[in-house]
Amino acid sequence: MRGEDAGLPRREAFAVLAAAPEEALVQLWRDSGLPDDGMLLRGPETGLVALRGRVGGGGSPFNFGEATVTRASVKLPSGEIGHAYALGRGREKARISATIDALRQKAEMVAEVDRKILEPLARNLREQDERRRAEIAATRVEFFTMTRGED
Amino acid sequence: MYVAVKAGEAAIRNAHRLLAHRRRGDRSVPSLTLEQITEQLALAVDRVMAEGSLYDTGLAALAIKQARGDMIEAIFLLRAYRTTLPRFGYSRPLDTAKMLVERRVSATYKDLPGGQVLGPTFDYTHRLLDPELAADAEPEAPVTREPEGDGMPRVSEILAHEGLIEEDGTLTKAEEPADITRTPPEFPQGRDARLQALSRGDEGFLLALGYSTQRGYGRNHPFVGEVRIGEVEIELDVPELDFPVPLGRIRVTECQMVNQFKGSMKVPPQFTRGYGLVFGQSERKAMAMALCDRALRAAELGEDIVAPAQDEEFVISHSDNVQATGFVEHLKLPHYVDFQAELGLVRQMRREFEERRQAADQAERKEAAE
């Protein structure tokens, strides 16, 4: 089990970074003052991922299209290697995300990285989703029944 | 004899320059930005992504701008672009039950869990042109309401018990799903290959075929069990990480069509299903896809194949608008030599025809004289 100090689980950190708008991430990264001295091992490079659905929603998988995905891998001077994958063609986003993944492998950096980058991004995403859910909820149909006839 | 002809370089160059000029239009009108296209022509972007079979809103917007709004040209541009990129892998199958739902309606159950949620729909509008929009009036902010916490199971899960409706399609083969972008199609196809072709198929073509089944050409008694639109998360397994990597979310439209079925030699009477899954907010396309998917299952369900929509080779071979436009539009390219050859042939046939007629005339006159 990870303690509270361990910050977001790695998978969730990936999810937050993947969902982040590139400009927002770049801005937070610049303002953070975190060390940007990683070396690119791979990429940033853009390719395709074939997307799969399931027949009938829950049956056998089938391919139904592709999406652009950009990935990068970064190595820090201290040796940690970080990776990043996200939909779209955000090259700087991939480089920064991989650097963040590498930095978070240093136990002493996790709290600072999460506070400066991941928490604000996660908060924005949560707020945006909540706003959208509330807008959609207002379009839910409330049926009412009119009684007609004598029975 | 073959004569190579080379010409027209300057004409082509100038034609493309003129195209760019016309694309820009009146230069006193501000140029469209890609953000304006993705935000304000979002459903055009969705269609280009769906039929271009590539999810990338920015590229689809660029394609629409470059194609001057010609959708099939934009789709062609996106398809051409995708061939330049390496393939990183196949995603895990997405789970539409976990969708962040923006719209969900069912025509079969009024009170289903999660309710009827209209979302941003054209339904129930009066289809009257809006002069206020022409005058650029800012719309009101949307109304908000506290969401109810109940989940939104797929309607197929609600109907499944009782056994009156068939289950999700499980293909018997254990191998990898077909990929029509890698393997040229062979007929008969599996349902997986057909669904991939239908998902990128031309909306107009599939709409017309779906409509034809409603009008009696392969009737299959459809109900919309459910249409849902919203965002789903994509996950990818990669060797360097020991968990499925979340890549972000895409918007899709899913349609569960439920079809009354009186049974056949093979299958008892029950509700059968057709399935549609399309990029973006593309309700008409997802519904048409589901109608065609069901019609194309005729052989599997032991139905007579009597209508175009049930003919797999006909539907799948003609559903791709990039292929179709390529073959139709190539007719305008130079066919000078072909045509010269045919011209020679027609002249010869005409000569022979005249000779035969003269011979017949002479024979007739001779007979009359005798």
How far is it from the N-terminal to the C-terminal residue of chain A, by CA?
63 Å
Order of helices and strands of chain A: HHEEEHH
SS-based class of chain A: alpha+beta
Overall domain count of chain B: 2
Principal-axis shape of chain A equals elongated
- How much beta of chain B, percentage-wise? 15-25%
Overall 3D form of chain B: globular
Order of helices and strands of chain B: HHHEHHEEHHHHEEEHHHH
Assembly type: heterodimer
Low confidence ranges of chain B: none
* Total of DSSP H or I helical runs spanning 4+ residues of chain A: 4
Radius of gyration of chain A: 21 Å
- DSSP summary: helix tally of chain B: 13
Care to count the β-strands of chain B? 6
Helix content of chain A: 40-55%
Describe it.
The complex is a heterodimer of chains A (151) and B (370). With 151 residues, chain A is α+β, with helices and mostly antiparallel strands. Chain A starts with 9 loop residues before the first helix and ends in a 14-residue tail after the last helix. Chain A has a 3-stranded antiparallel sheet with strand order 1-2-3. Helix content of chain A is 41%, strand content 25%. The model of chain A has no long low-confidence stretch (mean pLDDT 91). The longest helix of chain A is centred in the C-terminal third of the chain and has 28 residues, at 110-137. Chain A has 4 helices and 3 strands. Chain A has a domain at 4-42 and 72-129. By secondary structure, chain B is an alpha+beta fold. Chain B folds into 2 domains: 9-82; 96-120 and 151-169 and 178-326, no CATH class. Chain B contains 13 helices and 6 strands. A 4-stranded antiparallel sheet of chain B has the order 3-4-5-6. In chain B, β5 and β6 (270-279) form a beta hairpin. Chain B is globular and about 100 Å long. Chain B starts with 8 loop residues before the first helix and ends with a helix. The model of chain B has no long low-confidence stretch (mean pLDDT 91).
